[in-house]
TrEMBL record:
<protein>
    <submittedName>
        <fullName>IS200/IS605 family accessory protein TnpB-related protein</fullName>
    </submittedName>
</protein>
<dbReference type="InterPro" id="IPR010095">
    <property type="entry name" value="Cas12f1-like_TNB"/>
</dbReference>
<dbReference type="Pfam" id="PF07282">
    <property type="entry name" value="Cas12f1-like_TNB"/>
</dbReference>
<dbReference type="GO" id="GO:0003677">
    <property type="term" value="F:DNA binding"/>
</dbReference>
<keyword id="KW-0238">DNA-binding</keyword>
<feature type="domain" description="Cas12f1-like TNB">
    <location>
        <begin position="56"/>
        <end position="94"/>
    </location>
</feature>
């Protein structure tokens, strides 16, 4: 059982490394990361096990190190910032946007959220 947990841990760590390498390889001028309420997630009995296994801290520290290495600015956004309600083109904020009105498009190069207004 311990071998299985170790293998899963290695798979997650490898995935984190690959995602960070993929992000940094695109050479963005900055990377924005949301400030998540991890301690609140850990108090929720339905989320605590999943949140603990995701390695948010490890992801963030590795991303910070890579950003520093490649000279990329890393920004942290408040968890209450309405990023999914803000249009990336015109910056218009749709206050009453519900998740049922959002379409997520996934391709090999990027993930986009299209808001159906």
């Amino acid at each position: 059982m311990q071998k299985l947990h170790h293998r899963i841990d290695n798979i997650r760590t490898d995935y984190i490394n690959k995602i960070i390498a993929e992000i940094v390889k695109t050479q963005p001028s900055y990377i924005t990361v949301e400030d998540l309420n991890i301690s609140g997630m850990m108090k929720n009995r339905h989320l605590s096990k999943a949140a603990a296994s995701q390695k948010f801290y490890k992801f963030n520290t590795k991303l910070q190190a890579k950003c520093k290495e490649y000279g990329i600015e890393q920004r942290t956004v408040d968890r209450w910032f309405p990023s999914s309600k803000t249009c990336h083109c015109c910056k218009h904020i749709k206050k009453d946007l519900e998740f049922s009105n959002v379409t997520v498009v996934i391709s090999k190069t990027k993930i986009s959220m299209l808001h159906l207004i």
